[in-house]
Amino acid sequence: MSEPLQSLQVGTSRVTLLGTAHVSRASAEAVRQMIRSKEFDVICIELCQSRRKSLMHPEQLAEMDLFAVIRQGRANLVTAHLALGAYQQRMAEQLGVELGLEMKAAIEEASALGLPVVLIDREVGITLNRVYRNMSFWKRIYLIAGLFAGALTHQKVSEEEIEQLKSGDVLEIAFTQFAEQTRELSVPLIDERDQYMAAKILQALEMHEGKSMLAVVGAGHLKGMTRHLEDKDLDASALIRKLEAVPPKRSWPKLIPWIIVILIGIGFYFGFRESPELGWKLVWQWVLINGSLSALGAAIAGAHPVTVGTAFVAAPITSLNPTIGAGMVTAAVELIVRKPTVRDFRELRKDTATFPGWRKNAVAKTLLVFVLSTLGSAIGTYVAGFSIFGLLL
User: Fold this and answer.
1) Closest Cα partner for 176 from 160, 161, 197, 158?
2) Residues 357, 341: contact at Cβ < 8 Å?
3) What is the C-alpha to C-alpha distance for residues 393 and 391, in angstroms, rounded to an integer?
4) Are 371 and 303 in contact (CB under 8 A)?
5) Could you tell me whether strands 212-218 and 13-20 are parallel, antiparallel, or unpaired per DSSP bridges?
6) Residues 26-68 pLDDT 10s
7) Of 2, 128, 169, 246, which has the fewest beta carbons less than 10 angstroms from its beta carbon?
């Protein structure tokens, strides 16, 4: 077996970390062999509850309430989650293997032997939230672009290359270029999850003292998890509480949209004070730039013509009202004119592996409309703002 292994004694228990690639046949077979050896009493896996449900019961995606997702401001996170899944799905399909095969193997083999299965990874929504809150606006745009680039690229990946990915982690791989460039990504994606999964194992050991434990994790976590498991001063419960907390939104960025509104209002005021012609020119500049870029985003997403028109009308207005975004309006209209079917939910994971699939699937398209029309409006706000003040100066 070529999969990397790390075994260590933690108190009265033996913990074995098995490093895997998440879309590797060899990794799945190694998991089955290890569990069938009957050397282990407890099986830990690198999954959170939502990812386990998505992996084992993908049909439950049909229960997603898109209106609630948009209304609660979770559209960006759900879209990012789908893009991550699409990246993994694309590699799995190229290799002819099942997505998350080694985790499924661990669950199935443990169940067959009646062994307890412990989910040790942090909820992916919390991880993405901590990444998101840790970045500036423009870096968030860079992040979203990278997500879709990784998910939708048509570059073929050989199985030999997949085996080489054992030195990394599925989330890190999807963000490779970012994680190499900034600690803002590598800390919540890798370092924090090393700590979190080690702490979850220590918690599990308290319930299964003296037992032999196998942890199936991405190989990129072995070094960090080993270091934390060997830390005798680590307070598992306190660390888990700390790493599950979503950082509060910074108060000062909330002022930026209102400052922009005030500045645009001042621009209009001075424009009309100088002459009605200049004032109306500034207004039309604002409407055309902001509305056009938001409508362009909706069109790129494959939105219905009614939604594209709504984006053009709504963006200049919502940009002057920070309590509501253009994406909320356009996504709601898209849901009304193109209501998702059962097929859209059933094929969601498969469709999001390609860009045409995002545009074809009504669920994915609605989320994409939200993201791209919001992005277009945001860019339009800055471009139109600079244009207005350029005409005034």
Assistant:
1) 161
2) no
3) 6
4) no
5) parallel
6) 888 899 999 999 999 999 999 998 888 877 766 555 556 676 7
7) 2
Cα Rg of the chain, angstroms: 24
> What's the rounded Cα separation, in Å, for the pair 31 and 62?
31
pLDDT band for position 223 (cuts 50, 70, 90): confident
- Is residue 189 pLDDT above 80, yes or no? no
Considering Cα of 147, then 152, then 155, then 156, what sign does the dihedral take? positive
Residue with tokens 């100088």: 274
CA distance 23 to 94: 10
